[in-house]
Amino acid sequence: MSVYSMTGFASASAAPVTEGEHHPVGVTVEMRTVNSRFLDIAFRLPDELRQAEPALRELLTAALRRGKVEVRAQVGRGGDDALPHPGAEQLNRLARLQSTVQTWLPQATGLSVHEALQWCRGGASATAAPALDELAVQAARDCIDALRAARAREGARLVQVLMERLATLRQLADQAEPLVPAVVAKQQQRFMERWTEALAAAGASGAVSAESARDRALSEAAAYAIRIDVAEELARLRAHLDEIERLLNKGGETGKRLDFLIQELHREANTLGSKASALELTGISVDMKVAIEQMREQVQNLE
Fold it and tell me: Model's pTM, two decimal places?
């Protein structure tokens, strides 16, 4: 199953099939989508297509899950000249209406050719309203198919970027893992030395036996080593990386789940940085945060 981006653009047109020189009225639909937490649909339709809005909304809600969608539609003719073809009855009616108006208003000017064509265009559109709705739905279906294909292509590119970031994070985790035992041992030894120096400076050697002081120092050093050990954080980070890769390979609606996992990755990287007692681990933590933030930006575009 594909992973879909919430960013895409598509357009499609539909017109009735007729024979001869007559070019019928057609409908063109354009759809633009950007990222959003929910499905947000905005229509920009001419008056002739207002009745088709519920059908178009139903098509979109069935095909898309998330994203801000802008739908634009326009009515035009399929011919090169895009001019209406007035019939004799239409021109006869316009002539009668013009004569009636000029009878009552002698100073009224006559209709120009442009005005007559506009009136004929409006009449044809009004009489063909049901057909226009059907054409709008047909164009919308084709447009949605093209939009989903565009979102799938964009989603495939985002998956490639995310996989690269996953590989980077795994490399950083592999670099950090061998450093952990050495860092813990080094800090434990340093703690023991400071503990011994503190006991000597306080003159406690006479009141407390050397063996008892050493046992107490070892206990405190072990507790301190547990506090600075980041092995669990690295294990959880690897588990999150495996789950993200599984979701990307599975496809479908993964955006919200991936967003949650990105938050968990950021949490583990922060904990690793706060526990780090060596400059090397601190640098690895910073590099992890950079890669995770780059992943967050891409995940927010996934459906």
Answer: 0.69
